[in-house]
């Protein structure tokens, strides 16, 4: 009998896998990817996990030991990862009528047919993504999103499944045993904090949660957890949303290699960040009605931690980087406290609207002094020669600023920059 199945397609060790696509020498070796400013471990290969390299551990604490163990470290290369993610999502969209991009390395999709049909389709998807993008994928399939996420655990942990696990392929008794083996804190939508609240109700496993009184769970926690109970019972409460992750807001934030302390340095930072955010908005055909900006000190430094957050609303939706920059500086600049060492800042665009439906006629010439088409020209140049090649105002500074994020072990951006393409040597 033909039926509809929910599948989650997940890239295995995504950041590490992206690095390995263009550097095959990393295959089979312990590899870690570091956070901004080469701070902490944010991704590990299976080989690095086997060496007990922990997530979130500061790199400077383990660098000597890691090198002795043969661990290879890479700085985070978000431009490469983002492009690889977009390529995978585009290929995946050809295989399904419904797709929800859930995160940079995960997408929910709908599959049709019998259980065997769905498994065959998933295997074909894995093979196509490996062939065209080079990424190893795992697929979990079930009748709901929550069960598909649990199935994906099996696709990763049991090599005999070939990277695809469909819960519907198991008997009811076997499914019950599978859920009974999973800690409730590992269920999608629960987590460790909620698991502690469920413990007094005698709920310790996914099987316990499925058998629990849904109304009682809602009173104890929230309607979100009540939906999880129904999802575990095979009742679809979270339909696929055909939206691209990130459409509702655009954010650009970074930690600094060297703290900033002055309003002039903040103006430089905001000039760069607002232009990057504006370029992304234009690339997806969006304009913003509101913007949020922040600057923060380190929570680990001596003295009290401060974080300044301001919001700005625009009379008309805009993607003009000069308007965004001036508004950001005017709103956030006065908040800076003299003597503070700020280590992180960012801007995010909100209330996004479609650019095509919000064109306005500037009858009275109040739109600002940026020449028409300047942003588009800057975008074209940046696309051809790299985002560091041109900028408006302070963002046009070619010299590397002291606060620029440090990435001493970054790999080439092999899919987006001509001068960083991978070189193939024939033998």
TrEMBL record:
Coiled coil: none annotated. Residues 6-191 form the UmuC domain. InterPro entries: DNA/RNA_pol_sf, DNA_pol_Y-fam_little_finger, DNA_polymerase-Y, DUF4113, PolY_HhH_motif, Rev_trsase/Diguanyl_cyclase, UmuC. Keywords: DNA damage, DNA repair, SOS mutagenesis, SOS response. SUPFAM superfamilies: DNA/RNA polymerases. Belongs to the DNA polymerase type-Y family. Poorly processive, error-prone DNA polymerase involved in untargeted mutagenesis. Copies undamaged DNA at stalled replication forks, which arise in vivo from mismatched or misaligned primer ends. These misaligned primers can be extended by PolIV. Exhibits no 3'-5' exonuclease (proofreading) activity. May be involved in translesional synthesis, in conjunction with the beta clamp from PolIII. PANTHER family: DNA REPAIR POLYMERASE UMUC / TRANSFERASE FAMILY MEMBER, PROTEIN UMUC. This is Translesion error-prone DNA polymerase V subunit UmuC. It comes from Agrococcus versicolor.
């Amino acid at each position: 009998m033909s039926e509809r199945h929910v599948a989650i397609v997940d890239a295995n060790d995504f950041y590490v896998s992206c690095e390995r696509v263009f550097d095959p020498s990393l295959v089979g070796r312990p590899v870690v990817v570091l956070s901004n400013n080469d701070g902490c471990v944010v991704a590990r290969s299976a080989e690095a996990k086997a060496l007990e390299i922990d997530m979130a551990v500061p790199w400077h604490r383990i660098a000597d030991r890691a090198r002795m163990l043969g661990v290879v470290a890479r700085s985070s290369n978000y431009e490469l990862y983002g492009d690889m993610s977009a390529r995978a999502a585009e290929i995946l969209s050809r295989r399904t009528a419904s797709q929800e991009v859930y995160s940079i390395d995960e997408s929910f999709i709908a599959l049709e047919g019998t259980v065997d049909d769905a498994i065959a389709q998933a295997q074909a998807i894995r093979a196509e993504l490996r062939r065209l993008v080079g990424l190893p994928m795992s697929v979990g399939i079930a009748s709901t999103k929550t069960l598909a996420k649990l199935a994906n655990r099996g696709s990763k942990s049991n090599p005999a499944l070939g990277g695809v696990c469909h819960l519907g392929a198991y008997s009811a008794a076997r499914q019950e045993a599978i859920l009974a083996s999973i800690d409730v804190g590992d269920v999608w939508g629960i987590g460790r904090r909620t698991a502690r609240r469920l413990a007094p109700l005698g709920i310790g496993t996914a099987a316990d949660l499925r058998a629990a009184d849904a109304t009682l769970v809602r009173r104890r926690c929230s309607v979100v957890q009540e939906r999880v109970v129904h999802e575990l019972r095979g009742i679809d409460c979270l339909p696929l949303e055909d939206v691209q992750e990130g459409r509702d807001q655009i954010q650009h934030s970074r930690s600094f290699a060297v703290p900033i302390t002055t309003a002039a340095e903040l103006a430089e930072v905001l000039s760069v960040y607002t232009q990057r955010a504006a370029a992304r908005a234009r690339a997806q055909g969006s304009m913003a009605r509101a913007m949020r900006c922040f600057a923060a000190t380190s929570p680990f430094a001596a003295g009290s931690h401060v974080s300044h957050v301001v919001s700005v609303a625009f009379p008309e939706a805009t993607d003009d980087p000069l308007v965004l920059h001036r508004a950001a500086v005017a709103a956030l600049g006065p908040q800076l406290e003299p003597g503070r060492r700020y280590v992180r800042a960012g801007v995010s665009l909100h209330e996004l609207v479609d650019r095509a439906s919000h064109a306005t006629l500037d009858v009275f010439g109040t739109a600002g002094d940026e020449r028409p088409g300047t942003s588009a020209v800057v975008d074209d140049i940046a696309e051809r020669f790299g985002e560091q090649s041109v900028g408006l105002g302070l963002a046009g500074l070619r010299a590397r600023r002291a606060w620029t994020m440090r990435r001493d072990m970054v790999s080439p951006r092999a899919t987006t920059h001509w001068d960083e393409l991978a070189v193939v040597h024939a033998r």
